[in-house]
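re: that chain from earlier
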Amino acid sequence: MASDLSDLLAPELVAVGMPAASKKALFTQIGALAAPMLGLEPRAIAEALAAREKEGSTGFGGGVAIPHARLPGMRRVALVVARLAHPIAFAAVDDVAVDVVAAMLSPPHAGGEHLKALARVARRFRDRTLVAKLRGAASPDAIYALLTADETRDAA
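^ sequence. v structure.
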């Protein structure tokens, strides 16, 4: 199976140097970035991510977090990727501050689709080489290219 994330990610949903001093600020920034493209209210996105985070940290480890939420009004699963200006505390499994965020937003009833997409995103962000390249990428376009490259095609 292809491991690229091109069906979830759009270039407009990638940010480099996102300013966020806390999870709340991060979720507000993600809402502001994603709302115009997704046709949702920024506050609704931020609140949905914060509500899910209260259930347990989505800090994935290695400086990566994968916050996710289901939102009314979403038509499909979408991914927002941000490299933060400065790492923030996230109560991650390894207690490492987070500087790379992949926020996944799904329709309310996308049960299986949500879980499959979350597994794909987690598998991709578990790759330490990829995460190192994301940290070194100079622009949103470079991050988008890294995440939408099909590794299976590249390896052939």
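The first strand starts at residue 9 and ends at 18.
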